[in-house]
Amino acid sequence: MEELIQLDKQLLLMVNGSDSLFLDYLVMTLTNAKTWIPLYIALFYVVLKANNTVRDILLVLAAAGLCVLLAGTVDDMLVKPTVARWRPGHDPEIGLLVDTVDGYRGGKYGFFSAHASNTFSIALFFSLLMRRRLLVLTMLAYSLLNCWTRLYLGVHYPGDITVGLLWGALVGYSVYRLHRRYATPVSYSEPLCDVPIAVFALTLVYALGRAYANAFLT
Predict the structure, then answer these.
(1) Within 10 A of 164 (CB to CB), how many other CB atoms are there?
(2) pLDDT tens for residues 142-181?
């Protein structure tokens, strides 16, 4: 176990940070939950248009809320304080070696990553729900991009991310199966699913533009 922990720390230091001010600004934008609000609204729009009853719409919203509750809240409220594994920036062994952005180190404990579990549970749930290939790839990219930002910022170890993804996968799949038992089967058309895909692309353009403006124009 000690060897795995040391390997985890070495891997983090290999991928953490950079000398690029542009990447620093980009990552800080992408890791902010507010950046992804348009994507969540787009997913809600698809659900609203595809479902014919208020009951089915509410069931999807309740399922998405349950994903967040089980994936993120359980982690933050129970797992992190129980396991009490230092975040890299607070770790007495390597804390001074971690490259931070604007001094951001996160809270004291980081096992496991709520960013990874939250985003992947949502990504998997909506992928299984809508079952459109390009949307699936988009949702996976959304989750993995968020995971990368946490490594870049040095606020999670790769092990934190890995366990977070596994927990998120379990939550997302379990919630989908539960939702399927009570909801009316719905077919999500490709044109409808193109909406969150387009919003995801525009979000990336926004993040890149904002990073460029902050790094080179100010």
Answers:
(1) 30
(2) 999 999 999 999 999 999 999 999 999 999 999 999 999 9
